[in-house]
Give the backbone structure.
Amino acid sequence: MAYTIDELAAATGLPSRTIRHYQSERVLPPPVRHGRTAVYGEEHLTRLALIARLQERGLSLKAIRDALAEVERGDLSLEDWLGISEQLRRPWSEDAPAVVSVDDLERRLAGQPSADLAALIDVGLVRPPDGDPPACVIPSPALLDMSLSLDTAGVDVTTSAGAAAVLQRNLRTAADDVVDHFVEHAGEGFARSLRAEDITAAVEALRPLSSDAVRLLFAREVERAVQRRIAELGPAMRRRQHAAADA
């Protein structure tokens, strides 16, 4: 089969401008020229179906271009690449957003020292209620549980949310650096053969160990920071205690 661009657009349901955009992004091969007419073939139809499949998985055009280049070089089969991509896109945490009714949430908050619905919305632990009957989205139920536990222990939600923001900001940078580190060592110190099964095995090993490593290293660093602050603030705290006792 041979198609003009309008016929290819009709066969795929895509606008002609989208097809031209895919060509400019180099994810779709150029057509064959017959005089002034651009002619597309079955390979273009197949490639457009593949692009749609990859976009459904959330891939950008740049990621699709890079993946197809590897496949065309013979470095990786498409099915292997799709399998690896699917695995990498699996959540690394079981914590997922939840929807609860306002009534259920307020019952849960009864007796909390500072964690009322307004305070939780204020710090982003709960999104404002919506719908009829009204319900709230909890972006991270696990983070909400931790905040409520800290609130019971005397750490109000504003303070704990601020600490969580500090952690997230620094862990985002650390996560980028760690992933870049592994990518730089791919084929050497990470997934040495670069076969799909080796990449899969390496990533699967990282899933549980990543949270364990963060917990261990962070606990050590918190211990160090606490000891440093005790050494710095100890004399001042003792002076305050003596002054209070004298008063």
Q: What stands out?
A: DSSP finds ten helices and four strands in the chain. The chain has a mean pLDDT of 85. Residues 196-246 form the longest helix (51 residues). The chain has three domains: 5-88, 92-174, 185-247.
